[in-house]
TrEMBL record:
This is Aldehyde dehydrogenase. GO terms for biological process: aldehyde metabolic process. Belongs to the aldehyde dehydrogenase family. InterPro entries: Ald_DH/histidinol_DH (IPR016161), Ald_DH_C (IPR016163), Ald_DH_CS_GLU (IPR029510), Ald_DH_N (IPR016162), Aldehyde_DH_dom (IPR015590), Aldehyde_DH_NAD(P) (IPR012394). GO terms for cellular component: cytoplasm. GO terms for molecular function: aldehyde dehydrogenase (NAD+) activity. It comes from Timema cristinae. The active site is at 128, 162. The lineage of its organism: Eukaryota, Metazoa, Ecdysozoa, Arthropoda, Hexapoda. PANTHER family: ALDEHYDE DEHYDROGENASE, ALDEHYDE DEHYDROGENASE TYPE III, ISOFORM Q. Keywords: Oxidoreductase. It holds the Pfam family Aldedh.
C-alpha cells in the first residue's frame, strides 16, 4: 500500500510517498481467556497488512487450540499460515527462530521473556499484557447504574479479562452505598444459589510443568521462510531466498497438562484480605469463586499486589480524588482506568494526571468494542496497540520514498528555498543575540529588518 505524503514548497515538484510494507513473517502468541478473539484478531491484522503468520494458541485452552490448528490449514494457504501447538518447551524453542515481528498477549512476566527473546535480533514486538485496572467512584453518579456497570465488568468471564476492574476507590459513604446495592444486584443476576447459576463461569485451571501427549488431526506442514523481498502481487505467497528455516508441525502435538485448582486456591487466599462484605462462596473442586466484594482492604495486602483475574473486587477507602490519583501514580501503569463521575473536573483530573492504556468514563470494558480506538498498554501493562486500522499500522513498516527528477525549475526552486531558509535561520539567530545584548531595539524594528532582508534574498535568487 502506498500513500502520498504532504509536501512543502521545496518538494512541490518531487515525488513524496510512504510505502506501508509488511514486516514479513509474524509470530502471534495467543492467550486462553478469549482464545479465539485474542488469538485470531491480531492474525487478521497481520494478514491484512500482507504478512505470513505462525500462530501459537494457548495450551491452557487445548480444545480451542486444536480446533484452530484444524481449521487454519482448511481455509488458509498452509504454506503462508501455520499453527504450532505446544506448551512452554515448544514456545521457548519457537522464540529462538528469527521472526520479523512478534505479537504476544498474556501476563507481564511472560511478556518480559518474550521481549528479551525478541531483542536477540531486535525484532519489533507488540505486548498486550495486564495489570491492576483501578476504578474511581464518587457520589455524583446514578449509583444503581454505576454499580451494575462495575459489577458487570468484574463478573464477565468470571473476572478473567485483562481490562476487568481490579479494585475500587471511593469514600466511606459511597462504599456503604456500593455494598448495599451490590448485594441486591448480584441476587437479581445469579439468584440465591450463585454456584448453580448458568450465567457465571468458572476459573480456568493453570498449566503445570508436566507434559502429556494429545493427538490432534493436523497434517505435517513444512513452512519455508526467507528474508527476500516480495513483489506487491506476491505478498500472500510463500517467499523464497537463500536463507530459510523449516518448522515441522507434528500430528502428535505436545500440550501442557492442567492442574485442577491452582488458580482457584490463589483467589481463595485473597478472600482473607480485609473483610468479605458481599459473596465469598467458593468451591475449589469445581473451580468456583462467587462474585465477592472486599472491604477494609489495605494497599499493602496481597490482593492489591498482583492482577486478580477473578470475580473479586477489593475496595480502598480514599479521602478524595487526589488521594486516588496518588495511589494510581504510585503503582505500575494500568491497562485501563475507569472513572465513574458526572463531574467534568474529576474526569479531567484522572484523564490528564494519570497514565494508563485507556480511560473509560462511566462504563467498563466498552472501550474494546470501538475499533476506531487503539487498544494497548503502557509500561508494565504493555507496548504497542491494535484494533481496527491500528492493527494494520502495527503490522506494517512505514517506508519513506522520495523521487527527484531533473527538472530545471525544480532545481532552481530547491536551491532558492534552501538558501532562503538558511539565511533566515542565521539572521534570526544573529538578531536574537543582538537583542539579548542590547535591548534598546523593539521587536517591531526587528520584524521590519527581517522583512526587508526577505525581499532582498528573493530578488537575489530570481536574478
Amino acid at each position: 500500500m502506498v500513500r502520498l505524503a504532504c509536501k512543502d514548497l521545496v518538494n512541490v515538484l518531487d515525488g513524496v510517498m510512504i510505502n506501508h510494507d509488511p514486516y514479513g513473517v509474524v509470530l502471534v502468541i495467543g492467550t486462553w481467556n478469549y482464545p479465539y478473539l485474542i488469538t485470531l484478531g491480531p492474525v487478521a491484522g497481520a494478514i491484512s497488512a500482507g504478512n505470513t503468520v505462525i500462530i501459537k494458541p494457548s495450551e491452557v485452552a487445548p480444545a480451542t487450540a486444536a480446533l484452530i490448528a484444524k481449521l487454519i490449514p482448511k481455509y488458509l494457504d498452509p504454506t503462508c499460515y501455520a499453527v504450532l501447538l505446544g506448551g512452554v518447551k515448544e514456545t521457548t524453542q519457537l522464540l529462538k527462530e528469527r521472526f520479523d515481528y512478534i505479537f504476544y498477549t498474556g501476563s507481564t512476566n511472560v511478556g518480559k521473556i518474550i521481549h528479551k527473546a525478541a531483542n536477540e535480533y531486535l525484532v519489533p514486538t507488540t505486548l498486550e499484557l495486564g495489570g491492576k485496572s483501578p476504578v474511581y467512584l464518587d457520589s455524583t453518579v446514578d449509583m444503581d447504574v454505576a454499580v451494575k456497570r462495575i459489577l458487570w465488568g468484574k463478573c464477565a468471564n468470571a473476572g478473567q479479562t485483562c481490562v476487568a476492574p481490579d479494585y475500587l476507590m471511593c469514600s466511606k459513604q459511597v462504599q456503604s452505598e456500593f455494598v448495599a446495592k451490590a448485594k441486591t444486584i448480584l441476587r437479581e443476576w445469579y439468584g440465591k444459589n450463585v454456584k448453580g447459576s448458568p450465567d457465571l463461569g468458572r476459573i480456568i485451571p493453570e498449566p503445570v510443568d508436566s507434559l502429556s501427549k494429545a493427538s490432534i488431526d493436523l497434517e505435517e506442514v513444512a513452512l519455508r521462510i526467507s528474508h527476500s523481498s516480495l513483489k506487491s502481487s506476491d505478498r500472500m505467497k510463500p517467499r523464497s531466498g537463500d536463507w530459510a528455516i523449516t518448522i515441522n508441525f507434528l500430528q502428535e502435538a505436545t500440550i501442557t497438562s492442567l492442574s485442577n485448582g491452582s488458580s482457584v486456591k490463589r483467589l481463595v487466599e485473597f478472600l482473607s484480605n480485609g473483610t468479605v462484605a458481599v459473596g465469598g462462596e467458593t468451591d475449589v473442586s469445581e473451580r468456583f469463586i462467587g462474585p465477592t466484594v472486599l472491604v477494609n482492604v489495605k494497599p499493602s495486602d496481597p490482593v492489591m499486589q498482583e492482577e486478580i483475574f477473578g470475580p473479586i473486587l477489593p475496595i480502598l477507602v480514599v479521602e478524595d480524588m487526589f488521594e486516588a490519583v496518588n495511589i494510581i501514580n504510585s503503582r505500575e501503569h494500568p491497562l485501563a482506568l475507569y472513572i465513574f463521575s458526572k463531574d467534568k473536573s474529576v474526569q479531567n483530573l484522572f484523564t490528564t494526571q494519570t497514565t494508563s492504556g485507556s480511560v473509560t468514563i462511566n462504563e467498563t470494558l466498552q472501550q474494546l468494542c470501538v475499533h476506531e480506538l487503539p487498544f494497548g498498554g503502557v509500561g508494565q501493562s504493555g507496548m504497542g496497540a491494535y484494533h481496527g486500522k491500528y492493527s494494520f499500522d502495527t503490522f506494517t513498516h512505514n517506508k519513506s520514498v522520495f523521487v527527484k527528477d531533473y527538472n530545471v525549475i525544480g532545481e532552481k526552486l530547491a536551491s532558492f528555498v534552501a538558501t532562503l531558509r538558511l539565511y533566515l535561520m542565521l539572521e534570526y539567530t544573529f538578531s536574537l543575540l543582538i537583542l539579548h545584548q542590547d535591548r534598546r531595539y523593539p521587536n517591531s524594528l526587528l520584524h521590519v529588518a527581517l522583512t526587508l532582508d526577505i525581499h532582498s534574498v528573493v530578488a537575489l535568487a530570481i536574478t
